[in-house]
Amino acid sequence: MSMLNVFHVAGSALHAQSTRLNATASNLANADSVTSSNGQPYKAKQVVFAATPMGSPAAQGVQVKQVVESAAPMRMVYDPKSPAANGEGYVTMPNVNVVEEMTNMISASRAYQTNAEVMGTAKTLMEKTLTIGQ
């Protein structure tokens, strides 16, 4: 694999993990929102990745295929005094699991950091290669 492919592969991973972090941040920010901009309860977002070739058959990067709404059921919270409560006193809340989202955030931030370090290491190796003849 070419050294330049390392930058393409790591760069694609940085973009993908950045998108994942943004989706996670949006989910956490709306974990307790009764309604979203469309008047319905917020639905958690999940990022779907797909492998993509990067130059040579040995180099596989990652791309964001799509951002989808979670299929998890909405949470029902008993709050009869809320104006958003149904006839039985339950309020439909977002299907965001805060523990899962925090785990996703840690995983995505570590993957982002690792790929940034890969790019830094590849840059250092290229610089040292250029100084061999001096």
TrEMBL record:
InterPro entries per UniProt: Flag_bb_rod_N, Flagellar_basal_body_rod_CS, Flg_bb/hook_C_dom, FlgC
Residue span, Flagellar basal body rod protein N-terminal domain: 9-34
Domain of life: Bacteria
GO BP: bacterial-type flagellum-dependent swarming motility
Annotated localization: Bacterial flagellum basal body
Transmembrane segments: none
Keywords: Bacterial flagellum, Cell projection, Cilium, Flagellum
Cited Pfam families: Flg_bb_rod (PF00460), Flg_bbr_C (PF06429)
Keyword Flavoprotein listed: no
PROSITE patterns, sorted: FLAGELLA_BB_ROD
GO annotations of cellular component type: bacterial-type flagellum basal body, rod
Domain Flagellar basal-body/hook protein C-terminal stretches: 89-131
PANTHER family attached to this UniProt entry: FLAGELLAR BASAL-BODY ROD PROTEIN FLGC (PTHR30435:SF2), FLAGELLAR PROTEIN (PTHR30435)
Subunit structure: The basal body constitutes a major portion of the flagellar organelle and consists of four rings (L,P,S, and M) mounted on a central rod. The rod consists of about 26 subunits of FlgG in the distal portion, and FlgB, FlgC and FlgF are thought to build up the proximal portion of the rod with about 6 subunits each.
Recorded family membership: Belongs to the flagella basal body rod proteins family.
Protein known as: Flagellar basal-body rod protein FlgC
